[in-house]
Amino acid sequence: MKIAAIEAIPYSIPYRHPLHFASGSVHEADHVLVRLRTDDGVVGLADAPPRPYTYGETQKSIVAVVQDMFAPQLVGVDIFDREKIQEILYRTVHNQTAKGAVDIALWDVIGKTLGQPVTKLLGGYTDSLRVSHMLGFKPAQELLDLALEFRETYGINTFKLKTGRRPVHLDIEAARVLREGLGGDAELYMDANRGWSANEAAEVLRRTADLGLQFLEEPDDAREVLGRRRLVANSPIPIAADESAPNLGEAAREILNGGANLLAVKTARSGFTEAAKIVGMAEGMGIDVYIGNQIDTQVGTVASVVFGAAFAHTAKRAAELSNYLDMADDLLAEPLQIIEGRIRVPEGSGVGTGVNAEKLERYRSDR
Description:
three-stranded antiparallel sheet, 12 helices, 21% strand
């Protein structure tokens, strides 16, 4: 069974509630659906989210690299020659989410060909994940009201607070209001998206030390090497690498250089193959991981659920899976449900990323 064709289909779906954070904002899902077809007619799907402020990719660049670089080299390759396919993808530098989508679509066709759920092929640890919801820049009371609504409606009790604002007391106040309003049993953590300096982050940690925060993600630019190392060494809670650890090599570097002691794993930027290597490395080094969110659609979220549920190490912490709820619509044929704070792995073979053909035609932007 060989790869017969790979398509990259751009589409755009607006957000009802845009997400604002230190490194940018998202008002619409201007993503790319990657569709891989084998010579015996099996189709695999995956979603690629452009994040120019993080990885330098745009919707147009993803379409171009998939169609002009990857497809010509991969057509004719056997779907089970996964290492050969990885070698071809990594001849082209960067382009993280384009590579990730091709890899996930490949796993989808492998699962469908074998008649097996991909989560079981990867590891098969559990059938659901706890959900964490991301809260963007808003006044403190609005954030609390939103968190209470999500807890009441979906049973979610873990929240990521987007931070990195100046003056820092805005985010300190938000964290304090959330803790007081949600109570001590809620799990809270912060993500500054490189918005502070190391010294500012240290000040925030000092002034929130009594709040029981789980960890702080990307407090500053990791290229501020000495400041970041000092911050990690002195922090009372773990410092997580996300943007600074988009692939296996950079994740290893951040841990070994003392730039982080926790890792975000995002299937949208690493696919399943490289993400599994990152998880294995982290587990061997005694480093915890969590499933992060690229402000994913439901198609992207399904991939995160399938991967996160496959491994004991990724299933330990709540996964960032719910921000698709802020979208006006979605492509997934069988919409996800969050029940009692959890999302279940889809049943059936493959990844479970089947899309509604009518909606794809409505939202695609290449017609």
